[in-house]
Amino acid sequence: MKTQLFPALKLTLMCLLLFVIIYPLVVLGFAQFAPSKGKVPFVEYHGRIVGADNIGQKFDQDQYFNSRPSAVSYNAAGSGGSNKGTTNPDYLAQVQARIDTFLVHNPTVPKAEIPSELVTASGSGLDPHLSPKGALVQIDRIAKIRNISKEKLVALVNAQTEKPLLGLFGTEKVNVLKLNIALEALKN
């Protein structure tokens, strides 16, 4: 019994030390190099926290830039994709319904010019970003509703566009929450 018990206890203590203390400290150390220092970057508007910088929210009102659809109804506790393949009839019907809805609200946009991120959910279901094209394609609708010039809205999208990390990693993107906050600030 001693030949099995003591090695098992040693292995358990080593695993506890490694996985409960050392590994989390190493991850925390690497997180300190991130822009948010490993903390959730909250977004404030008029002194109130209105969301997190890295978690998508539902924006579907015509006076705002619409966000990317979510397969998990924007529930951060249940992050995940739909797991439906691109040939699944239910998935295709869902995407077609999103296309139809988009075209109803954005009649000036030809179907072929709808960016895919506006009708498909991301892998996490919580993507807070759109491509600049995904934001720019919505400008006609917002300009008409808010009575703001298209040029002013294009400049707003360009100002809110985040460049790739170090100019190399990732793509250009626009945080929809921050973009809509900046849009609200235009009318003040």
UniProtKB/TrEMBL annotation:
It comes from the Bacteria. It is a single-pass membrane protein. It is found in: Cell membrane. It holds the Pfam family KdpC. InterPro entries: KdpC. Keywords: ATP-binding, Cell membrane, Ion transport, Membrane, Nucleotide-binding, Potassium, Potassium transport, Transmembrane, Transmembrane helix, Transport. Its main location: membrane. The keyword Coiled coil does not apply. PANTHER family: POTASSIUM-TRANSPORTING ATPASE C CHAIN, POTASSIUM-TRANSPORTING ATPASE KDPC SUBUNIT. Part of the high-affinity ATP-driven potassium transport (or Kdp) system, which catalyzes the hydrolysis of ATP coupled with the electrogenic transport of potassium into the cytoplasm. This subunit acts as a catalytic chaperone that increases the ATP-binding affinity of the ATP-hydrolyzing subunit KdpB by the formation of a transient KdpB/KdpC/ATP ternary complex. Belongs to the KdpC family. This is Potassium-transporting ATPase KdpC subunit. It comes from Arcicella aquatica. The lineage of its organism: Bacteria, Pseudomonadati, Bacteroidota, Cytophagia, Cytophagales.
